Amino acid sequence: MPTVDQAEHLMREGAFQRAKVLLSEIISDDPEDLRAICDIGIAYTETGENEKAIRALLHYIRNDESNPYAWEALGCARFRTGDLENARKHLFQSLDLMPENPSSLRNLGILHGMEGRHDEGLELLQRSVRLSPRDYRTLYALNYAFRDAGKPEERLKILNRLMELELPDDIRRDVELTRIRISVEWE
Questions:
Q1: How far, in Å, are 55, 56, 135, 163 from residue 159 at the CA level?
Q2: Which residues in the chain belong to E strands, given as ranges?
Q3: Per-residue pLDDT tens digits for 67-121
Q4: How far apart are the C-alpha atoms of 62 and 77, rounded to whole Å?
Q5: How far apart are CA 56 and CA 54, in angstroms?
Q6: Cα–Cα separations (whole angstroms), residue 5 to 8, 21, 59, 69
Q7: pTM score > 0.85 for this model?
Q8: Rounded Cα gap, residues 84 and 90, in angstroms
Q9: Tens digits of per-residue pLDDT, 139-168?
Q10: What is the rounded CA–CA span in Å between residue 185 and residue 84?
Protein backbone atom coordinates (compact mmCIF):
# COMPACT_ATOMS: atom_id res chain seq x y z
CA MET A 1 0.00 0.00 0.00
CA PRO A 2 1.56 3.31 -1.07
CA THR A 3 1.89 6.12 1.44
CA VAL A 4 1.78 9.91 1.15
CA ASP A 5 5.32 9.99 2.55
CA GLN A 6 6.51 7.84 -0.38
CA ALA A 7 4.75 10.13 -2.87
CA GLU A 8 6.22 13.23 -1.26
CA HIS A 9 9.68 11.69 -1.46
CA LEU A 10 9.16 11.16 -5.19
CA MET A 11 8.00 14.76 -5.56
CA ARG A 12 11.11 16.07 -3.80
CA GLU A 13 13.13 14.05 -6.32
CA GLY A 14 11.17 15.57 -9.23
CA ALA A 15 9.38 12.31 -10.08
CA PHE A 16 5.93 13.90 -10.30
CA GLN A 17 4.45 11.36 -12.72
CA ARG A 18 5.30 8.48 -10.39
CA ALA A 19 4.05 10.43 -7.40
CA LYS A 20 0.71 11.01 -9.14
CA VAL A 21 0.26 7.25 -9.58
CA LEU A 22 0.80 6.64 -5.86
CA LEU A 23 -1.39 9.58 -4.87
CA SER A 24 -4.19 8.42 -7.17
CA GLU A 25 -4.14 5.02 -5.44
CA ILE A 26 -4.21 6.65 -2.02
CA ILE A 27 -7.12 8.92 -2.98
CA SER A 28 -9.09 6.06 -4.49
CA ASP A 29 -8.76 4.22 -1.18
CA ASP A 30 -9.54 7.33 0.88
CA PRO A 31 -11.18 10.15 -1.14
CA GLU A 32 -10.98 12.47 1.87
CA ASP A 33 -7.21 12.23 2.43
CA LEU A 34 -6.56 15.97 2.29
CA ARG A 35 -2.77 15.65 2.35
CA ALA A 36 -2.89 13.37 -0.71
CA ILE A 37 -5.34 15.72 -2.45
CA CYS A 38 -3.05 18.69 -1.82
CA ASP A 39 -0.01 16.74 -3.03
CA ILE A 40 -1.71 15.55 -6.21
CA GLY A 41 -2.79 19.13 -6.90
CA ILE A 42 0.83 20.24 -6.57
CA ALA A 43 1.98 17.33 -8.75
CA TYR A 44 -0.59 18.25 -11.40
CA THR A 45 0.74 21.82 -11.34
CA GLU A 46 4.29 20.56 -11.82
CA THR A 47 3.27 18.37 -14.79
CA GLY A 48 1.25 21.11 -16.49
CA GLU A 49 -2.16 19.58 -15.84
CA ASN A 50 -3.43 22.92 -14.65
CA GLU A 51 -7.19 22.36 -14.76
CA LYS A 52 -6.84 19.18 -12.70
CA ALA A 53 -4.51 21.04 -10.34
CA ILE A 54 -7.02 23.84 -9.87
CA ARG A 55 -9.85 21.42 -9.07
CA ALA A 56 -7.77 19.42 -6.58
CA LEU A 57 -6.31 22.48 -4.88
CA LEU A 58 -9.65 24.30 -4.63
CA HIS A 59 -11.09 21.20 -2.96
CA TYR A 60 -8.16 21.09 -0.57
CA ILE A 61 -8.31 24.81 0.25
CA ARG A 62 -12.04 24.63 1.00
CA ASN A 63 -11.02 22.31 3.84
CA ASP A 64 -7.70 23.86 4.87
CA GLU A 65 -6.76 27.45 4.03
CA SER A 66 -3.54 27.42 6.06
CA ASN A 67 -1.14 25.71 3.62
CA PRO A 68 1.06 28.24 1.77
CA TYR A 69 2.26 25.59 -0.70
CA ALA A 70 -1.30 24.82 -1.79
CA TRP A 71 -1.96 28.53 -2.40
CA GLU A 72 1.30 28.83 -4.33
CA ALA A 73 0.53 25.83 -6.53
CA LEU A 74 -2.97 27.17 -7.15
CA GLY A 75 -1.47 30.54 -8.10
CA CYS A 76 0.91 28.86 -10.54
CA ALA A 77 -1.86 26.81 -12.12
CA ARG A 78 -4.02 29.93 -12.49
CA PHE A 79 -1.06 31.80 -14.00
CA ARG A 80 -0.56 29.06 -16.59
CA THR A 81 -4.24 29.17 -17.57
CA GLY A 82 -4.04 32.93 -18.08
CA ASP A 83 -6.07 33.84 -14.98
CA LEU A 84 -3.58 36.43 -13.77
CA GLU A 85 -5.93 38.15 -11.33
CA ASN A 86 -6.58 34.99 -9.34
CA ALA A 87 -2.95 33.90 -9.73
CA ARG A 88 -1.88 37.13 -8.04
CA LYS A 89 -4.44 36.72 -5.23
CA HIS A 90 -3.36 33.14 -4.56
CA LEU A 91 0.35 33.97 -4.57
CA PHE A 92 -0.25 36.87 -2.16
CA GLN A 93 -2.22 34.50 0.08
CA SER A 94 0.73 32.11 0.04
CA LEU A 95 3.06 34.94 1.05
CA ASP A 96 0.67 36.11 3.78
CA LEU A 97 0.98 32.64 5.29
CA MET A 98 4.74 32.31 4.66
CA PRO A 99 6.39 35.66 3.83
CA GLU A 100 9.83 34.15 3.26
CA ASN A 101 8.77 31.52 0.71
CA PRO A 102 11.35 31.95 -2.08
CA SER A 103 9.27 30.03 -4.59
CA SER A 104 6.16 32.19 -4.08
CA LEU A 105 8.33 35.32 -4.24
CA ARG A 106 9.80 34.08 -7.52
CA ASN A 107 6.44 33.29 -9.04
CA LEU A 108 4.90 36.60 -8.00
CA GLY A 109 8.01 38.39 -9.31
CA ILE A 110 7.59 36.69 -12.69
CA LEU A 111 3.90 37.60 -12.73
CA HIS A 112 4.67 41.26 -11.98
CA GLY A 113 7.26 41.30 -14.75
CA MET A 114 4.78 39.85 -17.23
CA GLU A 115 2.34 42.58 -16.26
CA GLY A 116 4.96 45.25 -16.95
CA ARG A 117 5.58 45.97 -13.26
CA HIS A 118 9.30 45.41 -13.70
CA ASP A 119 10.59 47.18 -10.57
CA GLU A 120 8.24 45.26 -8.29
CA GLY A 121 9.04 41.99 -10.06
CA LEU A 122 12.76 42.64 -9.82
CA GLU A 123 12.51 43.38 -6.09
CA LEU A 124 10.61 40.14 -5.43
CA LEU A 125 13.07 38.08 -7.46
CA GLN A 126 16.00 39.61 -5.60
CA ARG A 127 14.35 38.74 -2.27
CA SER A 128 13.85 35.20 -3.52
CA VAL A 129 17.52 34.88 -4.53
CA ARG A 130 18.64 36.11 -1.10
CA LEU A 131 16.57 33.32 0.47
CA SER A 132 17.61 30.63 -2.00
CA PRO A 133 20.83 31.72 -3.75
CA ARG A 134 21.37 28.50 -5.71
CA ASP A 135 17.86 28.15 -7.14
CA TYR A 136 18.48 28.20 -10.87
CA ARG A 137 14.82 28.95 -11.64
CA THR A 138 14.97 32.19 -9.68
CA LEU A 139 18.34 33.17 -11.13
CA TYR A 140 17.04 32.44 -14.62
CA ALA A 141 13.99 34.63 -14.03
CA LEU A 142 16.19 37.34 -12.51
CA ASN A 143 18.29 37.31 -15.69
CA TYR A 144 15.20 38.35 -17.66
CA ALA A 145 14.13 40.87 -15.03
CA PHE A 146 17.52 42.58 -15.31
CA ARG A 147 17.17 42.54 -19.11
CA ASP A 148 13.75 44.18 -18.88
CA ALA A 149 15.07 46.74 -16.37
CA GLY A 150 17.94 47.65 -18.69
CA LYS A 151 20.68 46.49 -16.29
CA PRO A 152 23.15 44.58 -18.48
CA GLU A 153 26.00 44.37 -15.93
CA GLU A 154 23.75 42.82 -13.29
CA ARG A 155 22.30 40.49 -15.91
CA LEU A 156 25.74 39.26 -16.96
CA LYS A 157 26.63 38.54 -13.31
CA ILE A 158 23.50 36.41 -12.99
CA LEU A 159 24.24 34.59 -16.25
CA ASN A 160 27.75 33.82 -14.98
CA ARG A 161 26.32 32.52 -11.69
CA LEU A 162 23.93 30.32 -13.63
CA MET A 163 26.82 28.75 -15.55
CA GLU A 164 28.31 27.60 -12.24
CA LEU A 165 25.18 25.58 -11.42
CA GLU A 166 23.85 22.27 -12.60
CA LEU A 167 21.19 23.28 -15.13
CA PRO A 168 18.74 21.46 -17.37
CA ASP A 169 20.17 21.23 -20.89
CA ASP A 170 17.70 23.66 -22.48
CA ILE A 171 18.37 26.35 -19.88
CA ARG A 172 22.14 25.88 -20.07
CA ARG A 173 21.95 26.26 -23.86
CA ASP A 174 19.84 29.42 -23.56
CA VAL A 175 22.21 30.93 -20.98
CA GLU A 176 25.24 30.16 -23.17
CA LEU A 177 23.59 31.70 -26.23
CA THR A 178 22.51 34.75 -24.25
CA ARG A 179 26.07 35.30 -23.03
CA ILE A 180 27.31 35.09 -26.63
CA ARG A 181 24.65 37.54 -27.85
CA ILE A 182 25.63 39.96 -25.09
CA SER A 183 29.37 39.62 -25.88
CA VAL A 184 28.79 40.50 -29.55
CA GLU A 185 26.37 43.27 -28.51
CA TRP A 186 23.29 41.72 -30.08
CA GLU A 187 21.51 42.28 -26.78
A1: 37, 37, 13, 6
A2: none
A3: 999 999 999 999 999 999 999 999 999 999 999 999 999 999 999 999 999 999 9
A4: 17
A5: 6
A6: 5, 13, 21, 16
A7: yes
A8: 10
A9: 999 999 999 999 999 999 999 999 999 999
A10: 34
